[in-house]
Automatic annotation (TrEMBL):
Residues 7-74 form the HTH gntR-type domain. Coiled coil: none annotated. It comes from Paenisporosarcina antarctica. Pfam families: FCD, GntR. The lineage of its organism: Bacteria, Bacillati, Bacillota, Bacilli, Bacillales. One of its GO terms (molecular function) is DNA binding. Keywords: DNA-binding, Transcription, Transcription regulation. It comes from the Bacteria. This is GntR family transcriptional regulator.
Amino acid sequence: MKNTKKINKRQHAYEVIRSRILDGTYAPGQRLIIDQIVKEVGSSPIPVREAIHQLESDQLIEYKANTGAVVLSLNEEVYKETLEVLAVLEGYTTLLSVSYLTESAFEELEFKNMGMKKALEDFDLEVFSELNREFHAIIYSYCPNQMIVKNMEQIRDRLKNVRKTGFLLYPKRAPQSVKEHDLLIDMLRRKTPATEIENFARQHKLNTLKAFNQKEG
């Protein structure tokens, strides 16, 4: 019974800290004050420390000498490398999902993409970015390889943690992304040859990297 309570407290602390990282309450590079979190979640230090170690494993937190636990910051080089890894994983995950996608899934994808078009018309790039995440999450939710899905979710959370990434940095990429989504939905519906789907999905993500590089130039 005690062990169950301990796990519940650790999970609660984990969810609170994680949500604050992802919604920007805790900014990249910010130090986490354990005593303060302990008071806020109504716990003892041990479950909070265990939650922080779990978030370190998720690569949302890092430990720095003489500082302690801080929210992970990504420099531009690491950001680019992370996008490259995500491109490979999204390509393969999309490939694995093809055989399992249902008509309901295609309708959800179309609905999300329509929402992205509307957000673009309203110049609401934050909503656009979130709908983009949800669009791809629908596809990989049908992937049978849960280990790949877990790795993708961790990477996507890491990128979301950096609030200045994605379409918020380069809105010129947004209209083309919507068009690529339309093409991807069509390819998935028609069950285009697997290698073509994988290559297209991978290039779709690499186009985001290309837009980022052009922003720099």
